[in-house]
Specification:
With about 300 residues, the protein is mainly α. The protein has eleven helices and three strands.
């Protein structure tokens, strides 16, 4: 009995998604529906890329990694949120909180690096097409992908273990629907201003630097496109690049606000709203954005649909 009480004391309490909202069941049901769409959409995109040999290129290898990240990210957050809401049990263990925080950070950081690689891939394809097979070979692309996962995991491990050991003297109630570093810092009774400064600096390295590289890549791409003689080639290039730019905007916008400002400068409601947009809604939109304007993906979908009809 004493062991159970000690375990409960070390648990955190997740208040859930907008706890003061009157129609919580409707809101949570919508979130679950969005999660299902995101799950199915990303699974379908991964299947299309794996099953069609025409999509076994660096660009689509990176896109498949983005889908894996989005699929795992939403699955890290939504099932626990839904379980807590419908069962009424809002607690999450210390280990569970740390695990959720680790995977959330790892996937977010890896996505940041993958998006940067996707921009570099488009830069090489448009600006150095003759050297593209050498610079962005499948082997080199896979090595880059492994590097992204290792980099994301290493940084996430450090930024999960350290804040989890901050002393918590008062309430263990987390004003969020999942565990992440900014909300955990708010619970500590210790002065965390130095660590918050470290988080801001880390965010500059992992958000601003990649965003700057992406911006530089597309600056060169647009200059090259502007000098293209072929109107058809120009439109095809812009169609491919515009999909990636939309996804980049959806990812970097909310995350720069959350992680590059001190936690005291924004409210729990702002954190939750931006988290829903960035971590639940965006993973649902990504497969749609990349599929609707991509002829190769549409062709692969038609091919797969044709196989199912024949079977």
């Amino acid at each position: 009995m004493m062991l159970m009480n000690e375990t409960f004391v070390t648990d955190f309490i997740l208040v859930g998604l907008f706890p003061e909202f009157q129609h919580s069941i409707v809101l949570n049901s919508i979130i679950i529906f969005i999660y299902i769409l995101a799950f199915l959409g990303n699974i379908l995109l991964i299947i299309l890329i794996c099953s069609d040999s025409r999509l076994h290129t660096p660009m689509y290898i990176l896109l498949s990694q983005l889908s894996i990240i989005d699929l795992t990210l939403t699955s890290t957050i939504v099932p626990k949120m839904a379980s807590n809401f419908f069962t009424g049990k809002r607690n999450i263990s210390w280990i569970g909180c740390g695990t959720q925080s680790f995977f959330f950070l790892m996937l977010g950081m890896s996505e940041c690096l993958i998006l940067t690689l996707m921009a570099y891939d488009r830069y090489v394809a448009v600006c150095n097409p003759l050297r593209y097979p050498t610079i962005m070979s499948t082997r080199i692309c896979l090595h880059m992908v492994v590097g992204c996962w290792i980099g994301g995991s290493s940084s996430s491990f450090i930024h999960t273990v350290y804040p989890m050991h901050f002393p918590i003297c008062g309430s263990r109630e987390i004003q969020h629907f999942f565990c992440e570093v900014p909300v955990l810092i708010k619970l500590s009774c210790e002065d965390t201003s130095v660590y918050q400064l470290v988080v801001v600096v880390t965010s500059i390295v992992l958000l601003v630097v990649p965003f700057s590289l992406i911006t530089a890549s597309y600056t060169f791409i647009f200059i090259t496109v502007f000098h293209m003689n072929s109107v058809k080639g120009r439109r095809k290039t812009l169609a491919t690049c515009s999909s990636h730019l939309i996804v980049v905007s959806l990812f970097f916008g909310p995350n720069i606000f959350i992680y590059m400002t001190f936690t005291s400068s924004h409210s729990p409601e702002q954190d939750q709203a931006l988290s829903v947009f960035s971590n639940i809604l965006t993973p649902m939109l990504n497969p749609i954005i990349y599929s609707l304007r991509n002829k190769e993906v549409v062709a692969a979908l038609r091919k797969l649909s044709g196989r199912r009809v024949i079977m």
